[in-house]
């Protein structure tokens, strides 16, 4: 049984007429990357999959059960989401904020147990925030706040992780650290789906890709089939070339030097 | 560790509340020492002092506790619900509706001890339903629309209130002004307010963690497993009812609902499981102290409690706010 199944699923992007339906199955251990230009609908897709905004058509099943049949609390045990904007409450401590991840696992009258606290401590040290656990969220930098959000998702420990640009605000080292962490989670049987801006992070870490074009068409499947220079150039309206480093493909933008000099020469400014 | 801190804070606040209650019973135009209060308890034939304490001061003090507690609690709920630090129990126009109804009742000469709070309560409910109906949308919880609709409605009520004041015969004005400034001398029996306060605290106690998650934002709360729409509307109705009961018994008492949750947040952080009960107790203390001061500072002249709360609250709040900036 797949973690997530989309059947003729059409996301609702206002003002875009024909959006191609999506049919995918996300299994344990897979890392899906969503690539596409600004405004193509990456965030809308993630929010729709999480049941936060209604789709235009089609259906989703989570662990074999229709999304609409889930209660929010039990759904949050199956499916967690990292948002583009950090959502921690400023006046709370880092520890308290990450503890919110236990919410779906606790009944209304239950207190957090020592095991819940252990979850939080493990997650904070996994993202390198263990020293800051008693500080207020307001004292964290942008990158640290992003890592706190990831730690909160670890504490929530859902079967399927939806992440909207998990490497936002992170330096290169932290980017690699977070991707490695997500990779480990996948190896432990989680499903990961994330919107990314960096093609090379996606090619390095993802097993599957969804390409969202800004005309509403899309392509989805295993990474190898989609890592095509022409296709990716069309995706971003940006000429790319592919170079191999240690048998690993890297896509770099081609800067049209003649064109820039031409346009600057003819520019009236 | 945090739990111990929370428990000891609530204990401290409760002790302060008892001290404030003793003060309220002994201070006034006639000063009765706490020892004398004890002696009054043992008396067989009630003296004048005993009547003063049990018939006048005690009900009034209990009213202050009920109203202050209701305002503190509903202010704390509103600030989380609307995710706005400027939100207070009156931000959605509940007090305006109540005041307009109460003043109209006074003008029509039906301002009896029972009918006045009843009409105020009716006005508050009417305003709440109106804002609810005008702001509601098909999906989600319309935080910003609710806030804007409430603020606009409050302005509308305010204009109508001024109009009433302008048209009212001058001998009616002092009573009307006292109502608008918030005053406990009109309050009837305190039991309704105390019951509503106790019930609300009981109802809210299992929802502290949910409110903590809700404070992260509606989408974020939904992704963590909160059924945002029903929970938010439930909280909105409860907070509005608490405010309506408070306004109906004491008029518009400003500042308690705004400032109490902020004061506590500066001292103990933002865990709603602690903040909600603490706001109720601290609101009660603040209003009880303000009313006692208002009765005794210029006795036998009485100052409206609503004015004293603000005069007390402003300096305390500013000092704490400045100290909290590290």
Provide a quick synopsis of the model.
The complex is a heterodimer of chains A (269) and B (326). By secondary structure, chain A is an alpha/beta fold. Chain A has helices at residues 42-49, 72-78, 94-99, 114-126, 142-156, 172-187, 199-205, 223-226, 229-236, 257-266; strands at residues 4-10, 22-26, 31-35, 57-62, 65-66, 79-82, 160-164, 191-195, 208-212, 218-222, 240-245, 248-253.
Provide an overview of this structure.
Chain A is globular. Residues 262-267 of chain A have low confidence and may be disordered. Chain A has 269 residues and is an alpha/beta fold. In chain A, α4 crosses α5 (142-156). Chain A has helices at 42-49, 72-78, 94-99, 114-126, 142-156, 172-187, 199-205, 223-226, 229-236, 257-266, and strands at residues 4-10, 22-26, 31-35, 57-62, 65-66, 79-82, 160-164, 191-195, 208-212, 218-222, 240-245, 248-253. By secondary structure, chain B is mostly helical. Chain B has one domain: Orthogonal Bundle (ABC transporter involved in vitamin B12 uptake, BtuC). Helices cover 75% and strands 0% of the residues of chain B. The longest helix of chain B has 34 residues, at 48-81. The radius of gyration of chain B is 20 Å and the shape is globular. The relative contact order of chain B is 0.17. The A-B interface holds A 47, 50-52, 54, 71-77, 80-81, 83, 87-89, 91-93, 96, 100-101, 103-104, 106, 108-109, 136, 156 and B 2, 139, 206-207, 209-210, 212-213, 215-217, 219-220, 222-227, 265, 269-271.
**Tally of separate helices of chain A:** 10
Mean pLDDT of chain B: 85
The CATH superfamily label of chain B reads: ABC transporter involved in vitamin B12 uptake, BtuC
Shape of chain B: globular
- Any guess at the CATH architecture of chain B? Orthogonal Bundle
